[in-house]
Design a protein that fits this description.
The complex is a heterodimer. By secondary structure, chain A is an alpha/beta fold. Among the domains of chain A are: 74 residues, Roll (Ubiquitin-like (UB roll)); 244 residues, Rossmann fold, CATH 3.40.50; 176 residues, 3-Layer(aba) Sandwich (Dimethylsulfoxide Reductase, domain 2); 101 residues, Barwin-like endoglucanases (Beta Barrel). Chain A is globular. Chain B folds into 2 domains: 60 residues, Arc Repressor Mutant, subunit A, CATH 1.10.10; 82 residues, Glutaredoxin (3-Layer(aba) Sandwich). A 4-stranded mixed beta sheet of chain B has the order 2-1-3-4, with helices on one face. In chain B, helix 1 packs antiparallel against helix 2, helix 1 packs across helix 3 and helix 2 packs across helix 3. Classes of the chains: A alpha/beta, B alpha+beta. The structure holds iron/sulfur cluster (2 copies) and FE2/S2 (inorganic) cluster (FES). The site of one iron/sulfur cluster has 13 residues of chain A, from helix 4.
Chain lengths: 866, 158
C-alpha cells in the first residue's frame, strides 16, 4: 500500500513517499521507456526519453527524476508525449550509425525497441553523422578498452549508465566520459584498461551496442537463444544468473536481478565462470584404470566394476573401511543423496565436505562447546547497518556482491567500513574505510584492544549494552597481556586508531561483522571467534556473520555432509528415524572427518572411497600428503566433471554433469535456498549427480527410486520439515531462507587466549593464500575470459622482502617449506606487509597446498632467488 | 611535480569553501591553467591528489571545457567567435585571413610560439560582431585592417 495515490493514464496508482513517477508507474505495470535510468543508480535525467505529461506542469517532465506527489495526474502516452519522444529519438539517431545488422545488441537493444515503438521513419537532420574513427584504415570503429570489453563510440547515446555503474555503484575509477556533446568518448583513464571485478555489468546495462564483450560478441543472435534460470556457484553470495543457450551450448551468463541478493549486478567471475562447462578437460565418459592407465569405458562397465569391487571389499571389511568426500559446490540434493548412499548403502559415517581445512573444529562443535555462534545474517541486515567490520577477509574478491552491497551502504547511507586484516585489500580503496592493518597473527590483539578501549572510555555507557562493572574488570584481569597499550604495540596498529574504532563502534546503532577466508584458515580460529563475540558485546546491536567458503557450504553443513551430523543437523538420537526413512540399518553415528580419513587411509584402516565433485589433492592443506595417501587406496571412485589431480588417482571415474546441466538447489551464505534450472542437456556421456548416486545405490542393492533432484528434495522436505519447510516448487520463483537455530549468548565477556605465531629462523616468511584478480578459490582456472585478467602465475612478495632478497618483478623464485617447494615468478605487491608471501589459489602450476604441512600449525616458508 | 607549491596550496585553500570537494575541481583547473598556460594528465593527477578526488573526475571535467587548452599554445591565444552574429558578419573569412597571414592551421601554434588561432562558441558580445578574444581581452567590431594592425603590434611587442 502506498502513502498516497497518483493517476497514471486514468488509472489510480499507489505511490510511496520518495518514489519517482517512473517507479510508481513501473510498480503498477505501466511501462515508460528509459535509457539512462537504472534502478540501482541515482537518476540523472540525461536522455529525456522518459518524458511524460503531468497536469499543471507547463512542460513535459522526466518521469525518472520527478518525485511522485499526492494527486498528480500523469499521462505517459499522450500525443504531446509521443511527439516529444519522437523528437528525442530524432536527435539521438542524428549521430547513431544504425548498424543494427552487425551490432551485437540487436534484438535486445533499448534504442532499437524504443525506436520501433516511437521513432519516425525519416529524419529532418541532413548533416553527416559524426564518426569516432579508431583506425583510419577500417570502417569498424571498435576499440578494445579492457581485457574483455570493446567500445564502439558511434553507437553510444550518452546515457552514462556505464560510468555511473563503475563510479557510483562499484567505487571504481576505470571508466569515464571525456569531451562533450557528440564528441563525448567513453574511455578508461589514459594508459589504463577497464578491468574492475564488476566490469561486465557495463556491457549488460549499456542500453545500446556501444559496449560489448568478447565473450558473447558475434557468436549468436540473441533471439535464437533460450534462457535458463541459474544461480552462480563460484561463491556463497548466490547471485542469480540467466544462462543463454543455443543448440545445447551456453553462450553467456547475465544477471537475473534478485532484490534480495544481487539487485542486478554480478561480478565477472560469475559472468564468465560458465565457460568452464565447455572446458577441454571435461570428463567425457567413464574411465577405468587398467595397468596404471585410465582408459575410457562405458557406464555399464564402470558400474559393474564398482559393484564387484565394492562387494568384494565389503565381504572382507566393514563399512568402516570406506569413506566419502563431497565438494561444497554440489547441490543440496546431491549432498543429501551422497551422504545417504554412504551411510545406508556403503555403511560408513566417514564423510566430510571440508576438504581444505587443517582445523578440525566445526562451528557445530564450537557452538555446543562454547555457547557462541555466528548470527543469522542476511543481505537485509546489510541494508540496515550503519557500520561494517570486515575481519580477516578480502571481501572484495571472496564475496564480491556482498562487498557491493556494503558499498551501497557507504554511498547512500554514509555507513562506515572498518577493515581489520594483516594485508590491505581492495574493499578499502576509495570507500573511506578505516584500515587497521596489523602484523600477521595479531588480529586477536586488535580485537581485544578495541574492546578495552571501549570499556575504558569515560563515556562508555555499560548499562546500555548490559555490561556490569564486574564483567568489565574480569575482562581486564583475564587479558592483561592484550590490553592497551600492549595490544597496539603487539599488533603494530596505533593506539589512537584502536580508540577511534572503539568509539565509532560504540556509537553505531547497527553493526554487522563479517569474517572471511583468512579467518577460516587461521589455526586459532576459535579464539578469534571468542574475541569477535566480545567485540559484539560492546555494540548496541551487532550481528556476526562467518562467511562460508563455497557456494553450498551452508547446504553441506545442513544436509549431513559432516561425519558427526545427520541431515538437518540432527544428532545420534535421530539414528532410528533415518533407519526407518531409508529402510535399513545405519553404521555408528560418529565417523572420521577429513584429516581422520586421510590418517586412517595412511594406517590402512580405510581402503576404499568415493570422492564426489572434490579435488583434495589440489586443495587439502598438505597436497603431497593427500596425494600419497589417496594413492594407497584399493579402490577410489571419483565422480567429477573435470580431470582433476584427484581424478588421476582414481580406479574408476564417473563423469559428472556440471552445474549448468544439473537441476537442483544450493544454499547461499545467508542460508537462502535457491533453485537452478539445468540450462543444457548433460554434455558428452556425463550424468547429473543424483542420477549417478541412484545408479550406484541401485547397483549395490539398495534402490531409493530418487534419481531426480525433485524426488530427493521431496524426501528431504518430508523428513526435515522442521528445518526445511519449503517445497521444491517454491524455490523456482524465489529462494527461501532456512532458519538457523538461535543461540542465547552467555552474559559477560569471553576469555581469550593469545597464541603468537612462533618465529622460524629457517623459514622466516609466512604463507598467505588468497585470490588473484578475477579468480576465486581454486576452481576458476578453466574460464578463458577470467584468465585474460589474471596474467601469469606469480609469487607475491612484499616490497621490504623483495628488497632484502634483491628480487625484482618477474624474477624466478623458489618458495620452500618443510614439506615442499614451488617455483614461480615473483610479483612485488605494495600492499603486502613484510615477511608475508602471498600465493593465489587458482594456479595449477603454483599450488600453495604443496607448501603446507599437515602437522604445521602455521605455514612458514622461505624464498630464494633462482 | 609540475604545479608549484604555491598553486597547490591555493587549490587546497579554495577547496575549503565548498561542502563537497568535487566542486573545487574547476577552480583548481583554473589555477593550474593560469600557472602553466595549458593542462595535461600529470597536472590532473596532482590536482586529484591535492583535493583527494579521483584522477578520472579531474580529467573528465578538464576535457569537457574547451577553455582549458590541452597543449602549450602561443603567447597570443586568438579565439574567434563563430556563432551566428559573428558568422553573419564574416567571422569565417576573418579566421581564414588570420590563418593565412600567420601561416598556421586552426588549433596549431606558429613556429615562433606567438600565435594560436581557434574558433569558439558565442562569447556574448554579439552587438559588436565580429569579435575575438585574445587571452583575456575582447577585440570587437573587427575588420581585416584592424586585425593587421593588432598582429603588427603583437609581433613588435613579441
Ligand atoms: S557506452 Fe553505453 S552505457 Fe555508456 S554512456 Fe554510452 S550508451 Fe550509455
Ligand atoms: S559475487 Fe559470487 S555468486 Fe555473485 S556472481 Fe560473483 S562469484 Fe558468483
Ligand atoms: S530515463 Fe529519464 S531521462 Fe533518461
Amino acid at each position: 500500500m502506498g502513502d498516497f495515490n497518483i493517476t497514471v493514464n486514468g488509472k489510480t496508482v499507489p505511490a510511496v513517499k520518495g518514489q519517482t513517477v517512473l517507479q510508481a508507474a513501473l510498480a503498477a505495470g505501466i511501462d515508460i521507456p528509459v535509457f539512462c535510468w537504472h534502478p540501482q543508480l541515482v537518476p540523472v535525467g540525461a536522455c529525456r526519453i522518459c518524458l511524460v505529461e503531468i497536469e499543471k506542469f507547463p512542460k513535459l517532465q522526466v518521469a525518472c527524476a520527478t518525485p511522485a506527489a499526492d494527486g498528480m495526474v500523469v499521462m505517459t502516452e499522450s500525443p504531446k508525449v509521443v511527439k516529444a519522444r519522437q523528437g528525442v529519438l530524432e536527435f539521438i539517431l542524428a549521430h547513431h550509425p544504425l548498424d543494427c545488422p552487425t551490432c551485437d545488441k540487436g534484438g535486445e537493444c533499448d534504442l532499437q525497441d524504443v525506436t520501433f515503438k516511437y521513432g519516425l521513419d525519416y529524419s529532418r537532420l541532413q548533416e553527416p553523422k559524426h564518426r569516432n574513427i579508431v583506425d583510419e584504415n577500417s570502417t569498424f570503429d571498435d576499440l578494445q578498452i579492457g581485457p574483455e570489453i570493446i567500445r564502439n563510440q558511434n553507437r553510444c547515446i550518452h546515457c552514462y549508465r556505464c560510468t555511473r555503474i563503475v563510479d557510483e555503484a562499484c567505487f571504481e575509477d576505470d571508466l569515464g566520459a571525456y569531451q562533450r556533446g557528440y564528441h563525448t568518448e567513453i574511455l578508461p583513464p589514459p594508459h589504463r584498461e577497464i578491468r574492475n571485478l564488476y566490469s561486465g555489468n557495463v556491457v549488460e546495462y549499456c542500453p545500446v551496442g556501444a559496449l560489448t564483450n568478447d565473450d558473447w560478441r558475434y557468436k549468436v543472435r540473441v533471439w535464437l537463444t533460450k534462457q535458463a534460470k541459474s544461480v552462480c556457484t563460484h561463491c556463497p553470495d548466490g547471485c542469480n544468473l540467466t544462462h543463454w543457450t543455443f543448440h545445447n551450448k551456453i553462450f553467456r551468463a547475465t544477471s537475473r536481478p534478485n532484490e534480495n541478493i544481487d539487485r542486478g549486478f554480478i561480478c565477472d567471475i560469475g559472468r564468465y565462470g560458465y565457460q568452464q562447462v565447455a572446458s577441454s578437460d571435461r570428463l567425457k565418459q567413464p574411465m577405468i584404470k587398467k595397468n596404471g592407465e585410465l582408459i575410457e569405458a562405458t557406464w555399464e562397465e564402470a558400474l559393474n566394476l564398482i559393484k564387484t569391487q565394492v562387494s568384494e571389499l565389503k565381504s572382507k571389511l566393514s563399512g568402516n573401511a570406506f569413506f566419502g568426500l563431497i565438494g561444497e559446490t554440489s547441490t543440496n540434493e546431491e549432498i543429501y543423496s551422497f551422504q545417504r548412499f554412504l551411510r545406508r548403502v556403503i555403511g560408513t559415517s566417514h564423510i566430510d565436505s571440508r576438504i581444505n581445512r587443517k582445523r578440525r573444529l566445526t562451528f557445530g562443535e564450537e557452538v555446543t562447546s562454547r555457547a557462541i555462534a555466528p548470527d543469522h545474517v542476511s543481505y537485509q541486515d546489510i541494508d540496515k547497518a550503519d557500520t561494517f567490520v570486515v575481519y580477516a577477509s578480502d571481501l572484495h574478491s571472496e564475496n564480491p556482491i556482498t562487498a557491493l552491497r556494503i558499498k551501497r551502504g557507504v554511498r547512500y547511507r554514509d555507513a562506515k567500513i572498518i577493515i581489520i586484516n594483516s594485508r590491505s585489500t581492495h574493499l578499502g580503496v576509495r570507500t573511506g574505510a578505516t584500515n587497521l592493518l596489523h602484523k600477521p597473527g595479531t588480529g586477536l590483539a586488535v580485537l581485544t584492544g578495541i574492546v578495552d578501549a571501549a570499556v575504558s572510555s569515560t563515556t562508555f555507557d555499560k548499562s546500555a549494552v548490559g555490561l556490569s562493572d564486574q564483567q568489565i574488570s574480569e575482562f581486564k584481569q583475564a587479558h592483561t597481556e592484550l590490553l592497551l597499550p600492549k595490544a597496539a604495540a603487539m599488533s603494530g596498529v596505533g593506539e589512537s586508531d584502536l580508540r577511534a574504532v572503539a568509539d565509532s563502534l560504540v556509537r553505531s546503532s547497527n553493526v554487522v561483522i563479517f569474517c572471511g577466508a583468512d579467518f577460516s584458515r587461521y589455526p586459532y580460529r576459535d579464539e578469534e571467534l571468542l574475541a569477535l563475540d566480545n567485540l559484539r558485546r560492546i555494540c548496541k546491536s551487532a550481528k556476526l556473520a562467518v562467511l562460508p567458503e563455497s557456494s553450498n557450504s551452508v547446504g553441506a553443513e545442513l544436509l549431513g555432509a559432516y561425519p558427526n551430523q545427520y541431515p538437518g543437523g540432527k544428532g545420534s538420537d535421530a539414528k532410528s528415524k533415518f533407519e526407518d526413512l531409508w529402510r535399513g540399518p545405519l553404521p555408528d553415528f560418529s565417523g572420521k572427518d577429513m584429516i581422520g580419513i586421510l590418517e586412517a587411509i595412511n594406517e590402512d584402516e580405510i581402503e576404499c572411497g568415493f570422492i564426489f565433485n572434490a579435488d583434495p589433492v589440489r586443495v587439502f592443506p598438505d597436497g603431497n600428503y593427500a596425494d600419497a595417501v589417496l594413492e594407497k587406496l584399493k579402490l577410489l571412485v571419483v565422480v567429477d566433471s573435470f580431470m582433476t589431480e584427484t581424478a588421476r588417482l582414481a580406479d574408476v571415474i564417473l563423469p559428472l554433469s556440471t552445474f549448468a546441466e544439473t537441476e537442483g538447489t544450493r544454499t547461499n551464505w545467508e542460508g537462502r535456498i535457491q533453485y537452478t534450472q539445468s540450462a543444457i542437456k548433460p554434455m558428452f556421456d556425463s550424468k547429473p549427480g543424483c542420477e549417478i548416486l541412484e545408479l550406484l545405490a541401485d547397483r549395490l542393492g539398495v534402490s531409493f527410486g530418487q534419481g531426480r533432484p525433485s524426488e530427493v528434495y521431496g524426501e528431504l522436505n518430508k523428513s526435515l520439515g522442521d528445518v526445511l519447510p519449503v517445497r521444491y516448487e517454491m524455490f523456482k520463483s524465489e529462494g527461501a531462507i532456512y532458519d538457523r537455530p538461535k543461540h542465547q549468548p552467555k552474559p559477560g565477556f569471553n576469555r581469550v587466549a593469545y597464541n603468537a605465531i612462533p618465529s622460524d629462523r629457517e623459514y622466516p616468511n609466512f604463507l598467505t593464500v588468497g585470490n588473484a584478480d578475477h579468480h576465486r578459490g581454486p576452481n576458476t582456472e578453466r574460464n578463458p575470459s577470467l584468465l585474460k585478467f589474471t596474467g601469469d602465475p606469480f609469487v607475491g612478495l612484499s616490497e621490504i622482502d623483495a628488497k632484502e632478497l634483491m628480487i625484482s618483478d618477474g624474477d624466478l623464485v623458489k618458495v620452500e617449506s618443510r614439506t615442499g617447494k614451488v617455483v614461480g615468478n615473483a610479483r612485488v605487491i605494495a600492499e603486502l606487509p613484510g615477511k608475508v608471501v602471498f600465493l593465489p589459489e587458482n594456479f595449477r602450476e603454483l599450488r600453495p597446498n604443496l607448501l603446507m604441512g599437515l602437522k604445521e600449525k602455521f605455514d612458514h616458508v622461505k624464498v630464494t632467488k633462482m | 611535480m609540475i604545479l608549484s607549491n604555491d598553486t597547490k596550496s591555493k587549490i587546497g585553500e579554495y577547496a575549503k569553501k565548498y561542502p563537497k570537494v568535487k566542486s573545487a575541481i574547476l577552480p583548481a583547473l583554473h589555477y593550474a591553467y593560469e600557472e602553466q598556460g595549458y593542462l595535461d594528465d600529470s597536472m590532473y593527477e596532482e590536482i586529484a591528489q591535492v583535493l583527494g578526488v579521483k584522477f578520472i573526475e579531474v580529467a573528465e571535467a578538464a576535457s569537457f571545457y574547451t577553455m582549458f587548452p590541452k597543449q602549450k599554445r602561443g603567447k597570443y591565444y586568438i579565439q574567434v567567435c563563430r556563432n551566428i552574429s559573428c558568422a553573419l558578419l564574416g567571422s569565417h573569412h576573418l579566421t581564414q585571413y588570420l590563418l593565412q597571414k600567420l601561416g598556421t592551421k586552426l588549433g596549431e601554434t606558429t613556429k615562433d610560439h606567438l600565435f594560436t588561432v581557434v574558433e569558439v562558441e558565442c562569447l556574448g558580445s554579439c552587438c559588436s560582431a565580429p569579435m575575438m578574444q585574445v587571452n583575456d581581452k575582447y577585440y570587437e567590431n573587427l575588420t581585416l585592417a584592424k586585425v593587421d594592425q593588432l598582429i603588427d603590434e603583437w609581433r613588435a611587442a613579441k
